Amino acid sequence: MGILDAFRLDGKVALVTGASRGLGQAVALGFAEAGADVAGLDRSGANSDTGQKIEAVGRRFISIPGDLNSASVADLNAAVSRVVETFGRLDILVNNAGIILRRPALEYTETDWDAVMQINLKAAFFLSQAAAKVMVQQGDGGKIINIASVLSFQGGILVPAYTAAKSGLLGITRALANEWAALNINVNGIAPGYMSTDNTTALRSDETRNAAIVARIPAGRWGRPEELQGAAVFLASPASDYMHGAIISVDGGWLAR
Fold it and tell me: Is 162 a catalytic residue?
């Protein structure tokens, strides 16, 4: 296998949460361009053009409706089963879906806290569990990629639950890697920096905060969703077969500052 071939995803099937827009859509399209068929799990999938973009590059796509804010473990298992029923297998899982609720810690409610933890942490763990069971049954391993954050390493401002969840996701990535590496399942993560997505609209609209953030980024700008594709395809491909429990920062140099 040549080195460029090691990055191919031909014949692979990926499940990406939050694939209807932003980072998830970019990752899903990157997978398709590398040769994979894709399933997108999110509540707004039917209203997204992700499927059209993936089919335009000659790959198959299915949208699986599901609100991770209220999804039970049974619902998550059913979503994974739907992928296998449709495509015959599952090789790659990307836990991308997430929410940010910005509040001062003194004003954070239990409802706020539980919503962030449910989507950003609990759903990611139980989807990983469901996917890993399929990968073990298939017998040829698989790839799980958790979309962490620079706030997996830092405290942030006004986002206590998000920081806690993303820090927890970093820990889960390492813990699952320790258990599943011997099963030929690679569990790794990507820590995006400040990216231009719907989740950061409020920050980018705040002139003071936006200026402060950009001033701290060595690259001098916000990241674009498509700039996550290279790291995602790498971690999903044979090129990363000896990587377990690693987090790749795609942050314009933010953490190096």
Answer: yes
